[in-house]
Amino acid sequence: MLHKKLKPFPEGFFWGASTSAYQVEGAWDEDGKGPSIIDMGSVVPGTTDFKVASDHYHHYQEDVKLFSELGLKAYRFSIAWTRIFPNGDGEVNPKGIEFYSNLIDELKAHNIEPIVTMYHFDLPYALQEKGGWSNRATVDAFVTYSKTLFEAFGDRVKYWLTINEQNMMILHGDAIGTLHVAAENPMKDLYQQNHHMLLAQAKAMVACHEMLPQAKIGPAPNIAAVYPETSKPEDILAASNCTAIRNWLYLDMAVYGRYNNIAWAFLEERDATPDIQEGDMEIMASAKPDFIAFNYYSSQTVAASSGDASDRSSIDGDQQIVIGEAGVYKGATNPNLSKNAFGWEIDPTGFRNTMREIYDRYALPLIVTENGLGAFDKVEDDGSVNDDYRIDFLQKHIDQIRLGISDGVDIFGFCPWSAIDLISTHQGCSKRYGFIHVDREEFDLKELKRSKKKSFHWYNELISRNGN
Ligand code: BG6
């Protein structure tokens, strides 16, 4: 749709930026923190581990000051479950509460709204050893953990995100550092884990509303518009399959409290439906999110299934991520899109498509909790980083939000990835995303000095005119 006149970004729009605990904090075993599955997981050869990361744990005051200079209205970060409960459940670690309490105070003092993700990939290792999400007890541990967060920080935190990219943990667990599923029927086990996470999320949303009537809470999946490779009806059907399994399975449950029928049929076909206990679906139905947070990096293109194993083709270049489900859909590349240095397709228009689809389906306010460009930044002799490619990427995506707003989508914030350089999920620290450069290399920590990239000044100026 071409608009003669674009609607402006609303007053009070949350111009923000995002990080996650294990990718930015470091201090992996300090002040009583327990190990997470990330700390105990294998690191991709040639890339750094997460022990020091950007050392935000020791630099948080300096970092928040920089976020304030950047002009951020909101900062989306995650809490490391193992700082609060070193063993996943049991005793609370007061030092963990203290760290996040200080961070939240610091943000508030700078008029930056904290947006808190409760769980971003870093399951406590102690829980993993007891079966992780395959074990229903992990649901209770998550609920206790979430209630502890509401109690400790609910007086200052209004916006809560339950689980980051649950769909990616289920679809691509290997690539993002979650541990392998060892079970007789791995797929059934995987979707049992998924059911437990959905239940944990539902219970946390109910608890949040009971304990903090003023607070708002929502899920934070990675959602992408899925295109058919051609206009062949079979390709369109494949795109519909993929959309259901990749996107709507997660959001239909979070919003409507029901399993998406296409995704459910897919699980039945694979003998992978989860065991649902009495009362589970009532809980799912009673939990109502206040908004939908979503991460968007790219759209996805698929083609009709060939009906055999060739459907599971690794199409994502450097990422080596397998796209496709035998007999359901096959991954395809989109010849209309360019790619970033890591082989990820760049699709700003797909961003508009995605937000329109989500809003059309659920009619809940939206917030973008990740979007950004991973790149090999170059530091010039004078110390500057001229990341025009990042500015270009972000500007094009912000333009699409404005178009989405003009289409009538209710969207209240944009938190690109990432506020500051951090460690990529599985591609090290040379793959940078931040507005703030952190002076470290893969295996040389240097001084971890912070400096402002060109994109920092650009984003600051854009925020100062509310993006309009
Ligand atoms: C999202 C995650 O999937 O993508 C982040 O929520 C992650 O944790 C981001 O860092 C970018 O992916 P990557 O693999 O480049 O770090």
UniProtKB/TrEMBL annotation:
UniProt-annotated catalytic positions: 370 (nucleophile)
Record keywords: Glycosidase, Hydrolase
Pfam families the record matches: Glyco_hydro_1 (PF00232)
EC number annotated for this UniProt entry: 3.2.1.86, 3.2.1.-
GO cellular component: cytosol
GO biological process assignments: carbohydrate catabolic process
PROSITE patterns the UniProt entry points to: GLYCOSYL_HYDROL_F1_1, GLYCOSYL_HYDROL_F1_2
Record has Endoplasmic reticulum as a keyword: no
InterPro entries assigned to the protein according to its UniProt record, in alphabetical order: GH (IPR017853), GH_1_N_CS (IPR033132), Glyco_hydro_1 (IPR001360), Glyco_hydro_1_AS (IPR018120)
GO molecular function: 6-phospho-beta-glucosidase activity
Top-rank EC class of the record's enzyme: hydrolase
Family: Belongs to the glycosyl hydrolase 1 family.
This protein's name: Aryl-phospho-beta-D-glucosidase BglC
Gene: bglC_2
